Amino acid sequence: MKTLNVTEVARNFSSVMDTVESEQEEIVLIRNHKAIARLVPEPAAQNALEVFGDLYRTLDEATADALSNAVQKTKTSKRGSLGELRNPWAS
After folding, report:
1. CATH class of 2-39
2. Is the pTM of this model over 0.85?
């Protein structure tokens, strides 16, 4: 985590933003020797399968297969239904 003076950031804003993006590093902004803000990089973009990857491993086999099939239908037909999925946390 870097710390930068607000004046320095203002003078080099584009360069600072490039650094936050490329190095994925948080920067703390300092004014009058006091931290006043943070620049935090956005997390990398993920597709639906990456987002649901951990969830997929917690599902029972039938629900996991239904999720996989629904995603595959959506990929191929641009239309798909998640209606066949059941809530694994419902009793």
Report:
1. alpha beta
2. no
Beta bridge partners of 35: 30
Give the integer Cα–Cα distance in Å for 47 and 45: 7
Q: In terms of Cα–Cα distance, which of 38, 36, 64, 35 is closest to 52?
A: 64
Going from N- to C-terminal start, the domains of the chain cover 2-39, 48-77
Distance CA 2, CA 88 (A): 43
The contacts of residue 55 (CB under 8 Å, 6+ apart) are none
What is the per-residue pLDDT across 48-58, written as a single tens digit (0 to 9) for each? 667 767 676 77
Single-letter amino acid code for the residue at 38: R
**CA torsion sign, 47 to 48 to 52 to 57?**
negative
